[in-house]
Design goal:
Helices cover about 5% and strands about 35% of the residues. The chain has about 170 residues and is mainly β. The strands form 4 sheets. A 4-stranded mixed beta sheet has the order 6-12-11-8, with no helix packed on it.
Length: about 170
């Protein structure tokens, strides 16, 4: 008898111990296996066991092989943008998301989008680069929250806020 080397085997939410007896009725309803986070594969884990008629254990040992099918995980936003993006009204700008702003353990390609962009601003869906030229009326808002989203191929996404401040352009007196 042996427990899986990877993952956890539980009966009614409690870890199974080597040599523990498990009733047939409990196998389908109360016995559960949980793989390690983000782990998967054919033949991922095995459980060795013996059967009993209630009086004696079988002389033979049996093996149950557990296959774990991969599932898509949503992207994450582990590295928030803490500093507001300060822009000058009427002046072109370009802002590249810092490396590691969004991550996805399944996909290396994410698609970017944003809501709350000011007039004259756009986001590149492939790179996440925000650029444009905020108009002269944008400074009247003082600050604006833009929600940036990163979406994976399966349609799962993560988002984070970016504060955008537009400053009045300097006035030239002459």
């Amino acid at each position: 008898q042996a427990l899986p080397a990877k993952g956890t085997l539980k009966l009614n939410g409690t870890l199974v111990k080597v040599g523990q007896s498990i009733a047939v009725a409990d196998i389908a309803e109360r016995l559960s296996f949980t793989p390690a986070a983000d782990a998967n594969g054919k033949g991922y884990a095995t459980v060795a066991f013996k059967v009993s008629d209630g009086k004696e254990l079988s002389s033979l040992s049996y093996k149950l092989t557990i296959d774990v099918t991969a599932v898509n995980d949503a992207p994450t936003a582990p590295k928030p943008i803490a500093v507001p993006l300060s822009l000058i009204e009427g002046k072109a700008f370009s802002f590249i998301l810092p490396s590691g702003t969004f991550k996805d353990v399944d996909d290396t390609v994410l698609t970017y989008s944003a809501t709350g962009l000011l007039a004259g601003m756009a986001i590149d869906s492939k790179t996440g680069k925000i650029s444009g030229n905020p108009g002269y009326s944008a400074a009247d808002l003082e600050s604006n929250t833009v929600m940036i989203m990163a979406t994976d191929k399966a349609g799962l996404s993560a988002s984070m806020p970016l504060t955008v401040k537009v400053i009045n352009s300097p006035t030239v007196l002459g």
